[in-house]
Predict the structure.
Amino acid sequence: MGAPYSTPEKQPEPEQPEVPPMVAHFRRLYTDLTAPDEDGSPSDDKLFRTRFENYFGGHNLELGHLLYVKLFGSIVPVDEEMFVSAMTLLERLSSRHGDHHEAEAFYFTVFSGGEEAIDRQSESSSPTGQTLTKILHVAAIFAMVVGSELHERAVLPMDHFLLQAIVNAAMKHADKTTGQLHKAQFALWVSSQCPRLLEGTQHWMLSLLHGHHEHQQKTASAPQSDDVMMMYYQLPAPHLEGESQLAREVEICTLIWALSTLLPLVYMGHKEDMKKQPKLQTSVQHAPSYPIGGTWTLLYSSDQHGFSMNRFQHHCSDYREPSIMILTCRQEGGGDQLTFAIAVDTEWRDGAYFWGGENFCFLQLQPSFVMLKSGPKLLSLNEKQRGFPTGLRVMSSDKYDLCVLHVESSLEKAHFQGMDLAVMVVEVWGCGGVEAADSQRRVKAWESKEILRRRKIKASGLKETWMDSPDRYLLELGGVTTKRPTEQQQQ
C-alpha cells in the first residue's frame, strides 16, 4: 500500500521591496494627473499634458510647457515609470543633490528649447529667444511667490532694468569669437557670481513635488520633507511706512531678490555671528545658502528727508545691524543711468579712517549687475576730521591708492571711474529686522531725553553761579547793579 498523500507546504511569497516615500508620492501625483475628467470621460494625452503644464507652470504657464517638452518631448503616452523617473530627476536638481552645475545647465536648456548655446543678438533683440531673460523672470517671480507675501500679486515686466542688468552681466562671459553663451559658461557664471540665482525656481518645484504649496491641487497626502532649503526659504520683507502701494512693494521685493542672489546672508535675515559667515557664497552647494526672511526697514530716503548728510547720519546712526545704501545716478549732461548698492555690515561711522567688515560689498546694479568690491576696511565717511577728504568713499583695495566711488557731502553729486554723476535718489535700508529698528528708536529716544536733561542742568548751573560770574563783576565795574535771577523773578 502506497504512502499517504500529503500536500506540499506553501512557500512564503517573497517580500516586496519597500517603495520610497517620494516614489509613492510621485505615483499618486501621476494618478491625479491622469484621473478621469470631471464629466467622467477618460483622460487622454492632451488632458494629461494640460494638467501637467498648469500644475508646474503656476504663475508662468510657459514654464510648465517648456518643462514638459524638456522632460517628455513628443513621447506619448507618458507612462507611470517615465513620469516617476522625470519627477525624481526634477526633485534631485531642485534640492541641489545633483552634480556641480547640473541644475543651471538643466534650466538653461529648458528655456533655450534644448539649444546648447544662445546668441548675444537673439537674446537682446528677439522676444522668442530671450532665454536668459525668461530664466531670470521665472526665478524672480517664483522667489516672490514662494518666499514673500506677494503670492499672486507678484507681477514683474520682462524688461525690468534689474533683469536686463543681470542678462548684461551674464552675456559678458559669452565666447568673444562667436558671441555665444554656452550652457556650461552660464552654469559657471551662476555658481561663481550669483550662486542663489535659481533658488526661486527650485523652491517652487520643491513646493509642488513635496506637496507643500498652497496653490497646488488637492492631491493625496504628500510625505513630510526634512529638506531645510524648502522649509525655510524666505526673502526679507520690506517695511513700508503708511499705506502700502503694490507697485512700490513689488519694486523693492525685486531689488531684494536680485541682491539675495549674491550678497552674503547677513543681509538676508541670518542672525549668526557675522564673523563666522563665509565672505561670499561661491557655490550653490554651500549650506546654508538661502534667505530666511526678516524685515528691511527704510532708514533714510532723499525723497522723504531731502539731500542732506546731516539728515542721513541722523536717520542711520545707532542702527547696529547690516544696512544697504542704494544710489540711483545719471551721468551729467543727460547720459546713462547708473545704480549702485553699498552693503555695510557694521554701524555707520564718521571719521577719517576706513571701516567695514568681511561682508562689506560694493555692487553696480545698472547697467550691469556685478560685484565690484568686497572685503574689510574699504569704506570711509568723513564730515568731522579736517585735512581729510570729505564725503563717502569706496576704495579699490586696502592700499587706499584708488577711490572707486566718491559721493560728495551734499549727497547730490558722485564720481565713478572718471564719470561725473548727478545723484537722483539715495535710500538706505536696514536689514536687521524689526528688533534692530526698535533698538535704534529706543537709543534715539534716550539721546533726546539726555539732551533735554543736560540743558536743564546747564541752565540751573548758570543761576547758581551768577554771583561768582566774571560777567557780573565786569558789569558792576561799569556801574550796572545786578541781582540774582531769583531776586529778579520775585520782583
User: Anything to note?
Assistant: Residues 213-231, 273-288 have pLDDT under 50 and may be disordered. DSSP finds 17 helices and 13 strands in the chain. The radius of gyration is 31 Å. The CA atoms of residues 164 and 314 lie 35 Å apart.
